[in-house]
Amino acid sequence: MKQVHKTKRYKRHFICFKCRKNFKQPNEKDLAEKDGELSLLLNAFYFSKPKKKISKDIVAYLNNKYFRQTINCPECRTEMVEVSMSFETPAKKYIKKWEILESHYRAEGFIHNSLPNKMKDYIRLLENSHKWHIQMLQNAENHKAYGESSAEAKTRLQENIAALENELKKLC
Questions:
Q1: Would you say residue 35 lies in a domain?
Q2: What is the pLDDT of residues 37-71, one digit of tens each?
Q3: Which of the listed residues 57, 89, 121 is the one where a domain comes to its end?
Q4: Which domain covers residue 154, as residue numbers?
Q5: How many domains, the chain?
Q6: d(Cα 165, Cα 39) in Å, to the nearest integer?
Q7: pLDDT tens string 76-127
Q8: Burial of 77 (0-12, 13-18, 19+ CB in 10 A)
Q9: Which helix (H) or strand (E) holds 13?
Q10: What letter would DSSP give residue 10?
Q11: What is the pLDDT, as a whole number, of residue 55?
């Protein structure tokens, strides 16, 4: 009898700002496998040459079910934020660091490991990001994301600038 070796899939990493904790959740492939939809998910999103064509309705269904779902904290039930697997979660007692993380998420929409620990350095980082976004807006035609029109790029950059300005107002 042939033995099948199942490879370990990494779990997705999330943080909760309210609880100041990190949590791991199953990834989309594990969830799809549990639901009996793994082959559909692989054909729709992972294979460069799918074995069979998947309808747009099924792709939308899979996208909403496995990629666009809201993950709530198991303790406080507030929405958690996904971070990279290499993200180093600060200890719960480092309240200032957690405030910087949450502020950065509100301003930029993502979190990374290399944020400064001091608030004045963090404010300078946001100000530089704000300047960069304004420069990109002036030349939005050259800074489009994949599949994005110039108008969509301008809208995205304007939204990013507004989020940065709101966060800077709160901090200053």
A1: yes
A2: 888 888 888 877 766 777 888 888 888 888 888 88
A3: 89
A4: 91-172
A5: 2
A6: 44
A7: 999 999 998 888 999 999 999 999 999 999 998 888 888 888 899 999 999 9
A8: exposed
A9: strand 12-16
A10: P
A11: 81
Question: Would you state the pLDDT for residue 163?
Answer: 92
Q: Are residues 84 and 16 in the same domain?
A: yes
3-state secondary structure of 99: helix
E strands within 55-140?
Answer: 81-83
Q: Domain check: are 113 and 166 in the same one? A: yes
Distance of CA 133 to the CA centre of its chain: 19
CA angle 65, 77, 81 (to 5 degrees): 60
Residues 105 and 39 in one domain: no
Q: How confident is the model at residue 167 (pLDDT cuts 50, 70, 90)?
A: very high
Looking at the structure, do residues 66 and 98 belong to the same domain, yes or no? Answer: no
Give the C-alpha separation, 3 to 122, whole Å: 53
